[in-house]
Write a structure and sequence with these properties.
By secondary structure, the chain is α+β, with helices and mostly antiparallel strands. The chain has two domains: 83 residues, ATP Synthase, domain 1; 48 residues, Single alpha-helices involved in coiled-coils or other helix-helix interfaces. The protein has two helices and eight strands, in the order E-E-E-E-E-E-E-E-H-H. A hairpin with a 2-residue loop joins strand 1 and strand 2. Helix 1 packs antiparallel against helix 2.
Length: 138
């Protein structure tokens, strides 16, 4: 049996995942990265996107939005704003959120309001990530 790494995904609401896994891939700010057992220690900022992990022949995918990751002592810990399992994402709700965010983004660009534009862009990124993750989970 191959060595495994302990995975922890934690949100402000509490733990989402706590398990030993074979591999983890995550959306780092500087690009996607993968972690196996006995990986060198490091820290990374996490952006909105898909976090995947594999246990044997089983893969799981989560949508994560913003946070941090630490790899140390054969353990990888994600402290993220939100995490949703792909199979739990409401596709219709994500589509409505995407439409709202696109409208807000267009309005913010017309008014040149940086704060509103940043919020609309983040909401759009979350909605798109939810849709991608929900489709990948099928």
């Amino acid at each position: 049996m191959a060595e495994r790494i302990q995975l922890e995904v934690v949100t402000p609401s509490g733990p989402v995942v706590s398990d030993t896994v074979d591999i983890v891939t995550a959306p780092g700010v500087d690009g996607e990265f993968g972690v196996l057992a006995n990986h060198a220690p490091f820290l990374s900022t996490i952006k909105i996107g898909a976090l995947t992990y594999k246990q044997g022949n089983t893969s799981e995918i989560l949508m994560v939005s913003g946070g941090f990751c630490e790899v140390s002592n054969n353990k990888i810990t994600f402290l993220v704003e939100a995490a949703e399992r792909g199979r739990d994402i409401d596709i219709e709700r994500a589509l409505r959120a995407k439409e709202r965010a696109e409208k807000r983004l267009a309005a913010a660009q017309r008014q040149e309001e940086n704060l509103s534009q940043a919020r609309a862009e983040a909401a759009l990124q979350r909605a798109i990530a939810r849709l991608k993750v929900s489709q990948a989970a099928k």
